[in-house]
Amino acid sequence: MFLIEAARDMRTTGAIAPSSAALARALTEPVRARAGRPLNVLEAGAGTGAVTRALIPQLPSDSHLDVAEANPRFAARLHRLATPHPHLPEHGKQVRIHTRRVEELDTDRRYDVIVSGLPFANFTRHNVETIMDRYLELLHPGGTLTYFAYLGAPLARGLLTSRAQALRQRAVEDLLTDYQHRCTTGFRTVWGNLPPAKVWQLTQAPHTVARPNHATAGAGQ
Q1: Backbone CA torsion sign across 178, 12, 81, 96
Q2: Residue 215: exposed, middle, or buried by beta-carbon count in 10 A (0-12, 13-18, 19+)?
Q3: What is the pLDDT of residues 36-77, one digit of tens each?
Q4: pLDDT above 90 covers what percent of the chain?
Q5: pTM for the full predicted model
Q6: What is the domain partition of the chain in residue ranges?
Q7: Is CATH 3.40.50.150 what the domain over 2-204 is classified as, yes or no?
Q8: What does each C-alpha distance from 153 to 192, 193, 203 come to in angstroms?
Q9: Are 135 and 105 in contact (CB under 8 A)?
Q10: Cβ neighbour number for residue 162 with a 10 Å cutoff
Q11: What are phi and psi of 214, to 5 degrees?
Q12: Which residues does residue 197 pair with via DSSP β-bridges, in sequence order?
């Protein structure tokens, strides 16, 4: 199913294979770090559920997981994944699947952890800025956002894309760097994935707003 959807629209699928177990574990590390109390968790861009399957067993009792997946075929698969999951009923965990983009998610809930599987490198700077601002709006003060980028993307960009695409991707990278500089961050490299990836953690300090400098916001849009 993943390969069919990637062939249908690589721009929004953004990968050639689902996330590996190693990448899923790195992306969900903030959930394990907060074990011991109920959590509100949001996953965006869940695809076929490779990270969701790893995430659900790690949720503490009485936690809530919202999953935003705009692709209706992926969302239907996620519904089937969550409904019979053996870790849900006896531990009071609740999972809701939302067939929509995270920017359109209608919720008054704030999240301790947000796990992003969205392919930022395929979006415009404006798209990524909208998504990142929405993530930070939805995070509790002190909450953590995790997302990933594939290694070797700049080299591939130079070799395989047009100049316009290369400029768009560079604008996105510069924007994400701005967010990283304004938040407490950490990262790790996951070699056991196709392709290998770098996983970032952004933790917004309490009572601060991590928003980049908009002086160059028009670049790459």
Answers
A1: positive
A2: exposed
A3: 899 999 999 998 899 999 999 999 989 999 999 999 989 999
A4: 55
A5: 0.81
A6: 2-204
A7: yes
A8: 17, 14, 24
A9: no
A10: 9
A11: -95, 15
A12: 150, 190
